Amino acid sequence: MDTILCTYDQNQPDEAAASIDLAAKILQQGGLVAFPTETVYGLGGDALDPSASMRIYAAKGRPSDNPLIVHIADKADVWKLAEEVPETAVMLMEAFWPGPLTIILRKKPVVPDATTGGLSTVAIRMPSHPAAMEMIRRSGVYVAAPSANRSGRPSPTTAEHVREDLFGAIDMILDGGPVGIGIESTIVDLTGEVPMILRPGYITREMLSAIVGPVELDPSLEQLDAEVLGGAGAVTASTATTTDSAKTQESAGQTDDPADLSGSTGQTDDQTDISDSTGPTDGRAGIARANGQTDDRAGIARAIGQSGSAGSPGKNSDLPAEDTVMQHPKAPGMRYTHYAPHGTLSIITDREHPEQVTQAVTAEILRLTKEALAEERETAILTTGEHASAYDSLTEVPHFHKILLGDVDDGQTVAAHLYGALRTCDTLGCEVIYSESFRRDALGSAIMNRLVKAAGHRVISV
Ligand code: TXA
Ligand code: MG
User: Fold this and answer.
1) 3-state SS class at 236
2) Where are the beta strands (DSSP E) in 176-229?
3) Angle at 200 between CA 197 and CA 202, to 5 degrees
4) Residue 232's Cα: distance from chain center in Å?
5) Among all ligands shown, which has an atom nearest to the Cα of 268?
6) What residues have CB less than 8 Å from 206, skipping those under 6 apart?
7) E strands along 241-315, which residues?
8) Element (H, E) at 221
């Protein structure tokens, strides 16, 4: 398939209007258009046309039981798509739309099962990016749109990222420049008694609570927080090396690429529905996490030794006594490995001060990085303005890459750079990646959520 590339620049109104016209026409005809939103680029198709939804799944390589978000440009459309619109929905729509908030409501029959992955609920969002709004309005179509990445790859924050993943597989890419926010919308389920966050994002729990009162977190998100805080299954950094095989315990080190699946536990957000209940090891010691989680849908609990790209094959003989049962995320897509670079990404935290990048953290990253470099592995450190100088001694070392995400207290910049940085690691051919961690205030919760998932839950506590 030929993919048409068009630009959308508000300073070039004629060209922008022509691009929107073409995008609208393609959507009306059942085709697929990648377009910018304020969060990430989306891959849009007619949400009420089951065959368009199936085309989206096929282009992404995503399983068709992972539901799509329906994008609208007029709040009144919610009543056309949802069976019940609770007061909380109206309040949140008024407060945050257009903007990076997705709400889950009970669906009307008009929304096909192909779009909702067979669920009786529908995810709806009104994006604020002018290109997205204009395209939806002009087409007169409700636009089903997942992030416009190939299965398991980091979400695209530029049109170039979309081109890398989907060129030739979709009808059109609408290039509106780099997106503003850089991580996907907050998803809040409004079908229960109390609103529940299924995916953290730019709109924080505090912001939601200020409008609707108490807001719950999907239990699986709380579990993820516990991991970062050095809870069950956390790691002893003193034993962490890139090569030892003792004490290695980690889970969800699945590959992000369907092509990598042969004989591994590889699994992507878009690939199968067997959950991330795996306990592969990649041979790096001291990297630990609760393992052997149970998947209540597939009924499987796996602890699979897996040779990763970094280190020698791990041993699986040192499973922690008290394995944690993984909570099942309510958003189907949150079950899968996401955002993952091809290399092995680990996050280093300080057990005593999990919200800070201490000297102990940078020293451990330096030590691990030197080990990897000694083996001539392409190695990257994801760091921040405040701490980047801690790695200055490596600047001239071959195979070393330092990637700045932004300043520690500038979550907006870090969020905007995160997925691009993960893609850069792939472009550089990095096999080993170490990242500092981020304070989970405001946008930090969403940043750490994505980072921990990208790292396949490899969190090393010093
Ligand atoms: O910012 C965003 O939300 C971007 C842009 C393009 O709008 N879209 C996006 O879509 O991130 P996607 O498909 O990559 O992620 C949607 C998530 C998935 O985890 C999916 O399982 C969940 O939303 N989801 C969709 N419908 C749902 C439903 N009815 N109930 C629970 N989760 C749902
Ligand atoms: Mg996605």
Assistant:
1) coil
2) 186-189, 196-199, 216-217
3) 120
4) 23
5) 2
6) 442
7) 294-295, 300-301
8) helix 219-228
For ligand 1, mutation pick of 32, 64, 181, 184 (most atoms within 8 Å of CB): 184
Residue with tokens 């009543």: 79
Q: Is the CB of 146 under 6 A from ligand 1?
A: yes
Task: Count Cβ atoms below 10 Å from residue 169 Cβ, excluding itself.
Answer: 17
Cis before 313 (ω within 30) = no
Residue 340 confidence (pLDDT): 84
Decide whether any atom of ligand 1 lies within 6 Å of the 47 Cβ: no
Q: Tally DSSP H helices, then E strands, for the chain.
A: 12, 18
Could you tell me the two tokens for 379? 């190695």
Distance (Å) from CA 419 to ligand 1 centroid: 17
> How far is the centre of ligand 1, averaged over its atoms, from the C-alpha of 124 (Å)?
9
pLDDT of res. 288: 31
pTM: 0.83
- Tell which one of 43, 57, 69, 84 to mutate to probe ligand 1, the residue whose CB is within 8 A of the most ligand atoms: 69
Please list, residue by residue across 278-288, b when 16 or more beta carbons sit within 10 angstroms of its beta carbon and e when fewer do.
Answer: bbbbbbbbbbb
- Each residue's pLDDT tens digit, 419-458: 999 999 999 999 999 999 999 888 999 999 999 999 999 9
Residues sharing a CB contact under 8 Å with residue 411, sequence separation 6 or more, in sequence order: 438, 441, 442, 443, 444, 447
Phi, psi of 226, deg, nearest 5: -60, -35
Evaluate whether 277 touches 294 at the Cβ level (below 8 Å): yes
Could you write out the DSSP letters of every residue in 439-450? --STHHHHHHHH
From residue 410, give the alpha-carbon distance in Å to each of 295, 403, 417, 442: 37, 16, 11, 10
pLDDT digits (tens, 9 = 90+) for 283-308: 332 233 333 233 332 222 222 223 33
The CA-based angle 262-68-300, given to 5 degrees, is 40
Cα 157 to ligand 2 centroid, rounded to whole Å: 12
400's tokens: 């070393």
Dihedral sign for Cα 281, 286, 292, 296, please: negative
By alpha-carbon position, which residue is closest to atom 32 of ligand 1?
Answer: 331
CA-CA distances (angstroms) from residue 198 to 115, 171, 295, 366, 424? Answer: 18, 31, 18, 35, 28
115 lines ligand 1 (CB under 6 A): no
